[in-house]
Amino acid sequence: MSRRSGVLEFAVLGLLRESPMHGYELRKRLNTSLGVFRAFSYGSLYPCLKTLVSNGWLIEESGSASQDALAAPLSGRRAKIVYRLTAAGKERFEELLAHTGPDAWEDEHFGVRFAFFGQTSRDVRMRVLEGRRSRLEERLDKMRAAMARTRERLDDYTLELQRHGMESVEREVRWLNELIESERAGRDQRDGTAGQDRAIERDEDRPPQQEQDQSGDADGPPRHRGGSRPDPSDDTTK
């Protein structure tokens, strides 16, 4: 499977996890929600859908009248097919969602992965963000080294174009730094709250202490109310 078809598979499964859709609506969501698919056509989408159906990850159903109206730009039977995620398809998406390899950091994959961060665990989000930052920092070092070697031979416009590219990468690195710090702060806050909750639970499970006399010492014998301890030498019964 090519990198392009792999990211399309991930996006289709992710969108269909939200709700069933027919081809027209699915392509519209790919174009508007996930910018990397702006240039995608039905010629790319439908072979992917057919593959997902054959793998048992999607099923085809007949669409309702309202869905058919949305699919009016299409002709023929395709406009009436609604694609629904199966249980196996949900498992496949969860498997892809947990993947944190280098592919998740690349330009095409990262944007799509980020679009589904709301469904991704915190640990996976952190690994993807840190991997992306590391990849961009490597790219930035190479760009700076290349500019240092060739800047004397470049005209002003080519040099300005390279600077623009570097600034774009630098902005994304700063943005990633902010996201990573936000993720860490959220995790630390939750860990602190969890620690407080555990302390409260321990206090609630602790048996109540015996009630002390208000005028008594915690570690000594009780005092008589309203006065000091009696003097043993003062025997009033004699």
UniProtKB/TrEMBL annotation:
Region described as Disordered: spans on this chain: 184-238
Source species, domain of life: Bacteria
InterPro entries: Metal_resp_DNA-bind_regulator (IPR052509), Tscrpt_reg_PadR_N (IPR005149)
Statement: the UniProt record of this protein carries the keyword Mitochondrion: no
Coiled coil: 126-160
Organism listed in the record: Streptomyces niphimycinicus
Biased composition (Basic and acidic residues): 198-208
Record-linked Pfam families: PadR (PF03551)
PANTHER family cross-referenced by the UniProt entry: CONSERVED PROTEIN, PADR-FAMILY TRANSCRIPTIONAL REGULATOR
Keywords: Coiled coil
Transcription regulator PadR N-terminal domain sequence ranges: 12-95
Protein name in the entry: PadR family transcriptional regulator
